[in-house]
Specification:
Largest sheet: 3 strands, mixed
Number of helices: 2
Number of strands: 5
Shape: globular
Distance between the termini: 39 Å
Structural class: alpha+beta
Strand order of the largest sheet: 3-5-4
Oligomer: single chain
Radius of gyration: 14 Å
Length: 97
Amino acid sequence: MKLNRAGDPVDLEAEASVAARGLAALAWLARRPEDRIAVVAHGGLLAVLFDGPHHGGHTTDFVDDPDNVLGPRFANCEVRTVRVTTHPGPKYVIAQV
């Protein structure tokens, strides 16, 4: 069990649940008509979604980041610009812009 700064136990959401929410958000974004969309999210969600092999592997069948653009942990307030391409399956392929 994780502890907060005060030493009290913290019950975190399971990574599988975080991954499911992240994939649902990607599916929703893929249906949007806009060509460019700004997304602001918690670093933990991004880590589970885009660095699947190091976070339970829940998204590795759905997200392909061949250049590891989104895999490294985000710094506080960090901005990254990427292109997400949707393929049948669904499969989301990430590329640096």
